[in-house]
Q: What sequence folds into this?
């Protein structure tokens, strides 16, 4: 089984999926209760199938029962992990996506699922960030965007009524691939975006600037982005302010 079918998880991602502390997962890994290995840097890693196995054996139960699932996992009578069901389609990578995707897309989607942020109610901590992003860059639209395999969902937004768009339309799919801010100064003149429904129709995007939002393990779960309906450039101070706000948003993304 390759990484696309069975992504590699950090201890933090595994802990979020199980609903327990990272230190607890580390203890279980060290004891052999969760199959794992160490990287050359000494960090523990496991596979999604191992964590799904524990969740499958105590479906719908609170995290307090996970310890019982651990004991069940050690029983010789336990079913093989390979028979377990996968994540939902929204958090599983597409075989041939109509958008750019990185080699670690499967692991990124698991991390996004583990964050528990998608489809959650609005929160003041993110709403403040998008308001500030719009203000400091002079942009009419600002978004905290999270990218599943099927859609771009907005955790926070200002200047835009839509709650989500298809993933295929997302400028942010390009933004999460690199380590630097992704800027499109005139989308109507850019062959990658000029036929995009968000350029041809509402909100008639012409300018876009997005900075990846990363979890503690470095996975890009989405972006903080600003949008304008006119071609433009960001001044260096505006771009730095957007980067700083994205760093703050990343810290908030990492909180439960």
A:
């Amino acid at each position: 089984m390759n990484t696309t079918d069975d992504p590699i998880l950090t201890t933090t991602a595994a802990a979020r999926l199980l609903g327990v502390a990272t230190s607890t997962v580390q203890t279980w890994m060290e004891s052999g209760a969760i199959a794992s290995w160490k990287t050359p840097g000494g960090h523990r890693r496991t596979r999604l199938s191992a964590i799904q196995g524990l969740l499958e054996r105590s479906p719908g139960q609170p995290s307090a029962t996970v310890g019982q699932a651990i004991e069940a996992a050690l029983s010789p009578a336990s079913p093989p992990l390979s028979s377990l069901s996968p994540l939902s389609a929204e958090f599983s990578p597409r075989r041939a996506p109509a958008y750019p995707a990185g080699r670690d897309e499967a692991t990124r989607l698991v991390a996004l699922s583990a964050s528990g942020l998608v489809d959650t109610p609005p929160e003041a901590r993110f709403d403040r960030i998008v308001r500030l992003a719009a203000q400091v860059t002079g942009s009419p639209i600002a978004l905290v965007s999270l990218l599943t395999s099927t859609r771009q969902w907005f955790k926070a937004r200002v200047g835009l009524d839509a709650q989500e768009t298809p993933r295929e339309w997302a400028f942010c799919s390009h933004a999460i691939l690199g380590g630097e801010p992704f800027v499109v100064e005139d989308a109507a003149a850019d062959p990658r975006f000029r036929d995009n429904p968000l350029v041809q129709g509402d909100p008639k995007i012409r300018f876009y600037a997005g900075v990846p939002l990363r979890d503690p393990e470095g996975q890009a779960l989405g972006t903080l982005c600003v949008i304008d309906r006119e071609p433009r450039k960001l001044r260096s101070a505006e771009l730095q302010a957007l980067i700083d706000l994205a760093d703050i948003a990343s810290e908030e993304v990492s909180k439960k």
